[in-house]
Write a structure and sequence with these properties.
The protein is an alpha/beta fold. It is 40% helix and 17% strand. The chain folds into two domains: 99 residues, Aspartate Aminotransferase, domain 1; 241 residues, Aspartate Aminotransferase, domain 2, CATH 3.40.640. The protein is globular and about 60 Å long.
Amino acid sequence: MSKKQKINFASDNAAPVCPELMAAMLSENENLAFGYGNDDTTAQMERQLQEVFGCDLRAFPVATGTAANVLGLSVMTPPYGAIYCHKLAHIESDECGSPEFYTHGAKLVLLDGENGKIQPDLLEDALVRASVGVVHHVQPAVVSLIQATECGTIYTQDEVAAISVVAKKYNLGVHMDGARFANAIAELGCNPADVTCNAGVDVLSFGVTKNGGMSVEAVVIFDAEKAKEFEFRRKRGAHLFSKMKFLSAQISRYVEDDLWLDMAKNANEMAQRMKLGLENVEGCAPLHPVQANILFFHLHEAKIKELEDAGFLFYVEGLRSEGRVRLVTSWNTTEEDVDQFLQVLAK
């Protein structure tokens, strides 16, 4: 395999833009429209998401997942607030302090939990000890979940609801980082509302970029009052785009005819194909359940080098001698891509 033929299993961010979404942007380029979201396409996009979730909501396109997360969190917590999240959460490890910056100082409180998931009992234990009302301590404000998690696992409807019950008991808002939300819904096979607004989620970062979009996410807010504040925070945070229609056009086409779920389903199926093949390789063991499009496996260091020499792209986490490998499939991953990877391992 030449360098030009490298196959990417490092990240779904590296996948190309879905042709249907690219076509939607090109079509949008043929017409004039008012700026800053005052266009017909943006209004249509919001109506479509209301239909997808089957409830009233506001939807605000932004350019990045970081912006979606931190701006969404900013309407849910005061500067002296505490945001409870898993210790592996993206807002903890990969947002360069932007949650603290955009909330003007809110503190991230890290929780344990197997396979990247927050456990309701551990959350409640932390809240019981939170010194509510004591001026010397940050005050509980939000719990943030990831769907799918950084370990590639998925919260079920019951799991989200159970966490929300604890959160509401202590007057916390519930935020969901849905960078791979499509992969979760494709696996769960449920109505998106059942694992969000109907399960107690207040604000959702609705991911598009990792599943075929070109730098676009949506902040979906199920609370009308929080949505009013968000409009000003988005402007202040430099994410109110003049030519908003190009972002909205992607989301509009993304959810049309269940395209978003079809693409996520392919990524998930390729992950399962990879999983079955890896389980047949001697010395190769899964580190977490494979439920979405992310796989964590242990591989011998020699096998890692063979795959890299063959031109495959993927991440090795920690020391190479530890053999912890992360593999990510994408909307455009093919069976041939997966089989070539497995053939190298089988040699």
